Structures are given as C-alpha cells and as structure tokens.
Amino acid sequence: MKRIPVLTPAVLMSLLWLNSVSPVTAQGSQPAAARPEPIKPIPSELKLDAEKVALGKQLFHEPKLSRDNTVSCATCHDLHKGGTDRLIRSVGIGGAEGLVNAPTVFNSGFNFNQFWDGRAHTLTDQIDGPVQADAEMGATWEGIRAKLDRDPEYVAAFKKLYPDGIQPANIKDAIVQFEMSLSTPNSKFDKYLRGDQTALSSDEKEGYRKFKSYGCTSCHQGVGVGGNMFETFGAMADYFSARGNVTKADFGRFNVTGREEDRFVFKVPSLRNVALTPPYFHDGSAPRLKDAVAVMGTYQLGRKLLPEDIDQIVKFLNTLTGEYEKRPL
Amino acid sequence: MKRIPVLTPAVLMSLLWLNSVSPVTAQGSQPAAARPEPIKPIPSELKLDAEKVALGKQLFHEPKLSRDNTVSCATCHDLHKGGTDRLIRSVGIGGAEGLVNAPTVFNSGFNFNQFWDGRAHTLTDQIDGPVQADAEMGATWEGIRAKLDRDPEYVAAFKKLYPDGIQPANIKDAIVQFEMSLSTPNSKFDKYLRGDQTALSSDEKEGYRKFKSYGCTSCHQGVGVGGNMFETFGAMADYFSARGNVTKADFGRFNVTGREEDRFVFKVPSLRNVALTPPYFHDGSAPRLKDAVAVMGTYQLGRKLLPEDIDQIVKFLNTLTGEYEKRPL
Hints:
homodimer; 37% helix; Cytochrome Bc1 Complex, Chain D, domain 2; 2 domains; mainly alpha; globular
C-alpha cells in the first residue's frame, strides 16, 4: 500500500522552497548538463511568530513539564549538544534508560515523520510521547496546565497569543513553533550548494562526490539530508546478527505497523549537524562519525569503505553543521 | 604547610556522626579485635529545612539561572543520572565543552572541598563558579535576581523563608540546603557496615576485602569513600605521560596554588554511587568502572590487578549505590 502524502511541516517546506532555490548547477562552474544536486540548502529565513517561538523556547526548557519538575524537553534535546544529550540512550524521571538514542530536535520540522519508528506524523503529535511516557517526563497535560496556571508570566504570555489561554493544544503549539525555528541554515555545504565553490575544501568536495557515487544519497538527500523515508537497517548485510542482543526496540517500524516487512526498518535520520550528535544510530552503537560511516558502508551499501573514503566522507559530513540564531551551532 | 581544618558541612557531619555510629565489628561476627572499618555509613536522617530544600530543588532545575535560560544546574548534575551528565566533559551555554568531567552533586556536602581541584571550600562558594562561568551558565546574580523577581511564586517562597527576600545569598542558601539533602543513605554496603552480614554477597565482601588490603582505602575512606583529601593522579606511575595530550586542566590543584608539588594533584573523588556516574576521572577517560579500577591499580597502587580482583572490586563498588528520597538511586 502506498503512503499518502500529508501536509507535514516538512512537506510544506519542500513545496515552498524547492521552486525558489536555484540548483547549484545554474550558477556553479560545472557543466550545465550536470544532474541537480540531491541535497538542497536549508532556507535561511522562516516565517514564524517570534512571540510564540519565545514562549515555546521557555516551555521547551521548563522542568514543570515533567511530573516531578526535574526534566525538560531540553534535558534530552540540549541545544548546546546539537539538540541531543550525547548519550547512548536518554534517561528520564525514573532514572530508567530509554530504548533508543534521542534524535536531534534541530531541523526536526523537515522530517516526514517523528521518532525513529515514525510513529508520530507531526511534531505536535510527537510531543505527547515524551511528556507522558513514564520513563521520560511522566506528566499529564492537566498537571502541566495546573502548574503553568500558577505562573502569571505564563498566564499573560498565553493570554496574549492564544484566545483560550493555557491549554494543552496551545502549549504544544508554542513548542512546535519553537521547534520550527530550530532550523540550521548557512552550513558550509549549503553555501557550496548555493554556488560558493570555495566553501568546501577539495577533500570535502571529494567526500561529497563519494557520498553520492557510493549511493549514500539514495537515502540521505533532500533538505534534511535524510529524514524523508524509511529504510531497513541492514539492507545489504545482517547488522543485528552481527551486533547481537536484539531487543524489541530494534524491530523499529514493525512495532508500529506489525508488518513483517517493517521489522528492522527505521526512519533514515537527517545528517544535518551530524558531527555534533554522537553517538550514532537508534542504538547509539557508533561512538564516532567514522565508525558510523564504516557501518553504513558495510550494512547499507554492501561495501567495505577504505579509510581514505571514510575520512573524506566524514570531512564532508562536517560541512553540514549550520547556524542557529545566526551563530555556528 | 599543614592545612587548617575548617567547619565545612563534611567536617560537621563527621563530628556529628562518627561517635554515634557503631562500627560493624561491635555487632558482626568478626573477632572483637578487628580494626574499625575505614568507611562509615551515610547518616539516614538529615536535619534540614524542608521548605528551603524544596525551593532549592526548584532553583537547581531552573534554567533562568543561566544567561540565556537554557541551562540549569541539573543540566550537568542530573538527579536521574547519578547527579552527573554522564558525558566526558559537560557542555554549557556556549556549546563549549568544559575542561573536566562534571562530578556528582550527590553527597557533595561530604566533600572537604568542591571541584576536582578543590578551589571552593564550601558548596556556597562552589555555586558562583558554574553560574557565572561563560562556558557554563554565563549569568550574573543580579540578572538572575531580576528574572526571579518577576515570578510571584519565587517572590512569595523567598519572602516566607528569608526576611530580605530574593537575594543572591538566599538563592545560594536554598540551593545549598537542597544539595545537603542529596545524601544517599541505605546502600547495601551501609547496611553491611551497620551489621547486616547478609547485605553483601561473598564476591562483594571479597571485593571490599581486596579494596582495603590493596590500599584503596588509603584515599577512599570515610563517609564519602573519598572526597576528603588531595592526591597525585599517578602516585606510582606516570599516568599523564601514558595518556598523552596533557592540558592545563590536568595540572589540577597546581592551578589553584601555583605550587609545583600540587601539579597533577586532585581531590580524591567520593565513590558513593560510583556505578551510576561513568565516565570516570577528571578527564572522563575511563568509560566503565572496570576500566577505572584497572587504572587505579596501575597508577595509584603500582600493581596490575587481576581480572578477578577487578571484577570483585567492581561488585563491591556497586554496593555503594544508595537511596534518594527513600528510593534506590
């Protein structure tokens, strides 16, 4: 059965932007017949409500969103750690480890679905998960509303922006507005895509060339350099048998659909700012970027990448680090 | 020059408790002539002002204590991660990595000094460091006061507990009251120390025996199983030459005193709840407890510990995990 496209923020973005961004080939020095680049720059300006973004930022860092007031969204999605906690698996209010590695919150609005297994279509739906999960924030929306209601600053901020004041839907809306502001434009690579041939070194360019020619862009493409499809982890070789200790969390999308063909299937993660978000994969098994690239070569491409290949591809991946609030992330 | 003892919370605690706790030998099955145990149980009840503790807990988790409202004390001292962030080095508001591994906030009141290099005598003095450091929370006390002044809940809570309301000294006092509540009594090992011979397995007891006989208790003793002296990292062999990449942060106490004899000298860390706080050492270089024990054997004891020794000592160290708020940490 074919998936039906929905107007997620990511789809909206691509509709809005794919037409307005000139492919590098129109301005660059390559022959005009060159194929369009499979990766597109992140739009530099987003039309968002600055006041809602500011309120959402405060809520994102608000420990009152957890049952015992000790965990905020930022605990696991720290803006200063590439939007992650840099742990193999996150830890919630119970002190229990989560089941999978926390994905970055940066550019999450470009993802076609949320979570590793894509079980939430939108950022708004995603929020319900961690806020209410016992092992994460363990809260209820009513409990959160009651706590925020006691803070006149929140009461005034909501009243100004939402006619019905502090309501779960409005809390989520403000957080989503903030999350939509977490795009990271102006990476070295995006400057290159926009026509600045000097933005990348020759090694970085060669890394990008290999990234394309080896087939990484089959999955890692678009504005997000990933985040827009599902794929089997272990497409060319059996990753999980090699790793061992398979748990339910490794079943991925199967846990959502119950379809055998979805076992070991995950959302392809965005590679934007990937240099800042170790460790890698849903299981956090790759401590460094070069480990992750080697694993991808073996299990997704069916080829053992040479150290020089890995080194150049890592150099290219490092150019995907963008800016947040006009400063390098 | 000899150090002059001061009445830190740790010293006060030991004065209060050393006399009231019976050594295990008075009740246990060992001969009466056995030496007193070098490790003492954590007192189960602390006399603290519950309202100040609650206010301090809120402040500890309050991102308004950082310049850009994105980092709280709990960011690097997460109660659900053993009072640490489980990273090699912490990350502050600038996204910059700190210079050393963040020590746990649990039982920090027992430490004779704060920070790896002991540059703060008291918890109260310690707070000024991370709150004001550019690479950590980057705030000013005046800025924090202004933000808290806009929140009537904070205004009322301070007014009730402190005659002069929201003042930097009172903010620090409440946080220290909370930190003093972060002791973790009733570990398996403390139950054993109090006379319950069944609290430890034979391997755990053997691990403790080796921990003492190999000399670990020369430094790791007292209520904190450490935290009450300085020692050279590399007392028996040159740790830093072996590790390489020596930086100023490795100079330890030398950075405080400027005395050559203090180069590579650090506060001996408490081993309470050590199983929960990887990675280990000021440089975060040991990812697992067994790695840390092996390094200690080589560089502090001058002996290569056998795998069985390490295994048993690790089992003993696991018994040092206590309770917080009556629940296992």
